[in-house]
Structure formats: structure tokens, C-alpha cells
Design brief:
- The protein has 396 residues and is an alpha/beta fold.
- The chain has two domains: 5-144, Nucleotidyltransferase, domain 5 (2-Layer Sandwich), CATH 3.30.420; 195-382, Nucleotidyltransferase, domain 5 (2-Layer Sandwich).
- The protein is 40% helix and 20% strand.
- The protein has helices at 62-75, 104-112, 118-134, 154-157, 163-169, 178-192, 246-252, 258-267, 270-275, 281-289, 293-317, 327-332, 334-343, 353-358, 382-394, and strands at residues 5-11, 16-21, 28-35, 42-48, 51-58, 82-89, 100-101, 140-144, 200-206, 210-216, 219-223, 322-326, 365-366, 375-377.
- The strands form two sheets. It has an eight-stranded mixed sheet with strand order 5-4-3-2-1-6-8-7, with helices on both faces. Strands 11-10-9-12-14-13 form a six-stranded mixed sheet, with helices on both faces.
- The longest helix is centred in the last third of the chain and has 25 residues, at 293-317.
- The radius of gyration is 21 Å and the shape is globular.
- The mean pLDDT is 97.
- The structure holds adenosine-5'-diphosphate.
- Residues 207-209, 236, 280-282, 285, 327-329, 332-333 line the site of adenosine-5'-diphosphate.
């Protein structure tokens, strides 16, 4: 049996996603999720050879989920294939500019960044410590969502607030979805035969969380998410950009507490709040098709804000070699893509209606006509990127 695969772990505050991936063949032998890890009804579900199975875990936390995962991997003879573990980490602050192998110093570094993403980083640390306990012989790496954006110039990452807040507290734009942007921009360049080191690529990563990124010569030069994932585009339940004084307005006019305002802007706004229907783009598209005007307005606002950001990024890049759509909405919604491209017609986008309609469910490809500025879909694969990074790190 050859050790040729990486166990990819993505710990959320109450869940743990995993996959075993061979970075060379890109084959995924098992994938799954442990859920409800805070409480008494945790469970783990996995997909193996096309079949789904679920096991109740009772009051298992992240460590219990990892212990159960070890059992599942052993039972299915997958353990002997795993050469290393790669962890997705949401926030690496300014400390981490690339993926790295785990050492005590790296663990301390992740802890030091915890105030920037308290729920996420503390969950990641639980996962790392459990993996050290249950896979003591395996090397482990960490791959940061923020690392790709560390190439942004100061004019992109600084907020116009007193400078000491940046110096003393690290208050700045960090951006997210970096692993996806790295994968998608490289894949797009490969597909188009572009030299990544001499390229200008716009990417819109549109899922429940959504952001956009300007990528010059393979490096992030600007992005829409900020200190936290709340800034930027309209999202499933997040407001995206608002006047910061909305905080005092909601407090003074409406009597909301700070926690209530944070909850409102993160969990009750965006597509859900605007439409009053749902945070899921599919539900809104279906409702709009049936004449629900606010659903249509919500979709239009989503596209309007995205197009406005992309237009600004295009000016920063100076040219557009490709506009790439990815994430659940970007990969599947021909309607959103068309709406956005039409708003950006000043940049020479000419939609290929048929190619646009036919590109969904994991398919990648160009969706504009010959002669048009190129727009395309690339199905993202953050897990594969984490597996590739991990393998490269252990290969030295
Ligand atoms: P996350 O940010 O949670 O990773 P995903 O990238 O999985 O999100 O995207 C999830 C979103 O993708 C869903 O909320 C849904 O709005 C959208 N989506 C999935 N399929 C379609 C589709 N066929 N048409 C429009 N939107 C879709």
C-alpha cells in the first residue's frame, strides 16, 4: 500500500469536514462531515465508494469526532494511505503569508491570531491538537484563508482610521477565500494558456459567503472582505458594505444592543434580509421567475454591488485577461453571471448564452463569445489545494 494521500481537515465552531485526497490523481477516497459538535447529538456522515453512512457520536466534541474518524479510516483500510494531514485555517493575520508545517511555534502563532477570528481559530486549534493526539506519527500542515491576500499593497489593506489602530491592534483588511482564489486563478490561467506571472484576473467567489479579488501576476492586489468576512458584497445573510454609522442608528433609533446589531448584520441581512424569503440564491431565482418583485430586486442588488466592485478592481488591474466565477452561486447560476456580465459590458463582455446556460454542477469553461473579454467558470477545490500544499511541504 502506498502512502499517497492527504487527510484534509476543516474545523468549524460546531462541525468538522474531512476528505482524503490524492493530490496527484486528484482522487478523493472518502469525504464527510461531523456535525453538532457542541451539544449531545453529534454525528458523523461520510461518503465512500458512492455510499453515504452516518454514525451517532452522542456528546462528542472535535476530539471525539477525530477519534471516530480514525476508526472509520482504519475500518476501511484508508489509514495506510495517509502520508500527512492538512488543516484549513481561517485567519493567519499578518504572521502567515503561506502554508506551513505545524510546529509548536506555528500553533502559538495561530493562537496569537485568534482574536481576529475567535470562533474559527479556536476550533482549528481543537482539530490540530486532536490530530496530534490521534495521528502522532503524521506530519501536519496549515493552509490559511488569509495568506494569499498578504501580497496586497497598503493602499488596499489599510482603513482610513487612526494609524495606531493598525500598528497596535492589527486593524486592517485581511480578506478571505484565499485558498480558493489561489486554486481558481492558477486553474483559469492553465485553461486559457495564460502566463500566470503576467496576468490580470478578476475572481468572484460567490457562495453563502461571497467575495471578489483582483489578482495581478498571480498575486492578490485587492479583495472585498475586510477585517472580517462581513465587509464587501451582499451575501446569503451578511449585509456586506454599509455606512458604519448604521451601528449608532440601529442602537439609538431602534434600541438594538451591540450583539444584536452584529447578529442582524451577519445573520439576518443580505439576500435573506432584503428578500424576506431565504438566503439561498436558488429560492430567490425561482421566486423571481414567478413574479416575486423583492426577490428580483434582491438579486439585482447582489449583481449591482458585485459589478461595481469588479469594475473598480478592473481599473486597479489596468486590463482584464479573465473574469472567473466560482463558489456555489458562481458555478451554478447562469442568471447571476449573465446579469453581472451585462452590467460590465463597458469592459467588452459578450455573453455566450448557450455556454453560460450549460455550465453548472462542477463544470468549468469559458462563457463568453470569441472576441469578447473572457469570462469563465472554474469549479473551486479548496481541499485539493490544501492537499497539494501539504504534499509539497512534506516533500520539502
Ligand atoms: P459556502 O459559502 O457555504 O461554501 P457554497 O459555495 O456551497 O457556499 O454556495 C452555496 C450557495 O450556492 C447556496 O446558498 C445557493 O445559493 C447557491 N447555489 C447552489 N446551486 C445553485 C444554483 N443552481 N443556482 C443558483 N444558486 C445556487
Amino acid at each position: 500500500m502506498s502512502k499517497d494521500s492527504v487527510l484534509v481537515i476543516n474545523c468549524g465552531s460546531s462541525s468538522l469536514k474531512f476528505a482524503v485526497i490524492n493530490p496527484k490523481t486528484e482522487e478523493e477516497s472518502i469525504s464527510g462531515i461531523a456535525e453538532c459538535l457542541v451539544g449531545n447529538d453529534a454525528s458523523i456522515t461520510w461518503k465512500l465508494n458512492g455510499e453515504k453512512q452516518t454514525l451517532d457520536l452522542g456528546a462528542a466534541g472535535h476530539e471525539g469526532a477525530i477519534e471516530a474518524l480514525v476508526g472509520i479510516l482504519r475500518e476501511n483500510n484508508l489509514m495506510e494511505h495517509i502520508e500527512a494531514i492538512g488543516h484549513r485555517i481561517v485567519h493567519g493575520g499578518e504572521k502567515f503569508t503561506q502554508s506551513t508545517l505545524i510546529t509548536d511555534e506555528v500553533i502559538q502563532g495561530i493562537e496569537d491570531c485568534s482574536h481576529l477570528a475567535p470562533l474559527h481559530n479556536s476550533a482549528h486549534l481543537l482539530g490540530i491538537r486532536a490530530c496530534i493526539k490521534y495521528f502522532p506519527e503524521l506530519p501536519q500542515s496549515v493552509v490559511f484563508d488569509t495568506a494569499f491576500h498578504q501580497t496586497m499593497p497598503a493602499e488596499s489593506y489599510l482603513y482610513a482610521v487612526p494609524y495606531n489602530l493598525y500598528e497596535e491592534h492589527g486593524l486592517r483588511r485581511y480578506g478571505m477565500h484565499g485558498t480558493s482564489y489561489r486554486y481558481v486563478s492558477k486553474t483559469a490561467a492553465d485553461m486559457l494558456g495564460l502566463d500566470l506571472d503576467n496576468s490580470a484576473i478578476l475572481v468572484a467567489h460567490l457562495g453563502n459567503g461571497a467575495s471578489a479579488c483582483a489578482i495581478k501576476n498571480g498575486e492578490s492586489v485587492d479583495t472585498t472582505m475586510g477585517l472580517t468576512p462581513l465587509e464587501g458584497l451582499v451575501m446569503g445573510t451578511r449585509s456586506g458594505d454599509i455606512d458604519p454609522n448604521v451601528f449608532s442608528f440601529l442602537n439609538k433609533q431602534c434600541g438594538y444592543s451591540l450583539d444584536e446589531i452584529i447578529d442582524l448584520l451577519n445573520k439576518k441581512s443580505g439576500m435573506l434580509g432584503l428578500s424576506g424569503l431565504d438566503n439561498d440564491c436558488r429560492v430567490l431565482e425561482n421566486a423571481a421567475a414567478e413574479g416575486h418583485q423583492r426577490a428580483q430586486l434582491t438579486l439585482d442588488i447582489f449583481c449591482h454591488v458585485l459589478a461595481k466592485k469588479l469594475a473598480g478592481f478592473a481599473a486597479e488591474l489596468g486590463r482584464i485577461d479573465a473574469l472567473v466565477f466560482t463558489g456555489g452561486i458562481g458555478e451554478n447560476s447562469s442568471m447571476i453571471r449573465k446579469n453581472v456580465m451585462e452590467r460590465l459590458s463597458i469592459f467588452g463582455f459578450d455573453v455566450d448564452e448557450q455556454a453560460n446556460e450549460e455550465t453548472f454542477r462542477g463544470k468549468s469553461g469559458v462563457i463568453t463569445k470569441p472576441g469578447s473579454t473572457v469570462a469563465m467558470v472554474v469549479a473551486t477545490n479548496e481541499e485539493l489545494m490544501i492537499a497539494r500544499d501539504t504534499e509539497a511541504l512534506i516533500a520539502g
